[in-house]
Design brief:
Layout lengths: L29 H11 L7 H19 L20 H11 L6 H14 L3 H39 L6 H14 L1 H16 L1
Helix pairs in contact: 1-2, 2-5, 3-4, 4-5, 5-6, 5-7, 6-7
């Protein structure tokens, strides 16, 4: 039996460089931190449902507009410029790309210097540009989904009226599920996560 081919052991991250396992990849600004402190204050008598709505709203509003975000590149994205360089040059790039204690900005700069030296700078810049455009589209979809999930959750909470029968509530919930399946699954998943906490 043949062994599988050797693979890069450090997955590549959003910058086209290895994935950095940092506790926070998004730097919150003061407003977002204050809002999070307000949610977590003991004086705030909020149910988990209300907390979920607020958390989704904060994620949708503050993170999208005030955070410093670098665009994530899938570790599985094909990097065509790799095949145009020698093995030694490739290993040099991997050495640059696996510097986990180096800021992403510096790693990108060194990567572009490496690319210029090996004649693949145009391909690398094109790759980074395409990946950034894809990431921006995906981020906009995620923000829209989070905003819509908060609205759908508010609608979900209104279903539980004590003037309704259990059958009516179940039918209304099924109707909401059919109308907005993505949002429904998102807030139900978060609801289950909160039960585990």
């Amino acid at each position: 039996m043949r062994s599988p081919p050797a693979r890069l052991t450090t997955p590549l991250s959003c910058s086209g460089l290895p994935y950095v396992h940092s506790p926070q990849r998004i730097a919150y600004t003061g407003k977002a931190i204050k809002a999070m402190e307000l949610i977590n204050s003991p004086a705030a008598a909020l149910s988990y449902g209300n907390m979920l709505v607020i958390a989704i709203a904060i994620a949708a509003l503050y993170i999208s507009s005030e955070a410093k975000i670098f665009h994530e590149i899938s570790p599985h994205a094909a990097r065509p410029f790799y095949y145009k360089v020698s093995g030694r040059a490739y290993r040099k790039y991997i050495a640059i790309a696996t510097m986990e204690n180096t800021p992403i900005k510096v790693m990108r700069k060194k990567s572009l210097e490496w690319a210029k030296k090996h004649g693949v700078k145009a391909e690398m810049e094109k790759f980074y540009k395409e990946q950034a455009e894809e990431s921006e589209k995906r981020e906009k979809k995620i923000i829209a989904l989070l905003e819509n999930a908060a609205k759908a959750y508010r609608k979900y909470l209104t279903l539980f009226d004590d003037n309704k029968t259990a059958r009516q509530i179940a039918q209304d919930e099924q109707k909401l599920h059919n109308e907005r399946p993505k949002e429904y699954y998102l807030f139900k998943y978060v609801d289950q996560m909160l039960e585990l906490l």
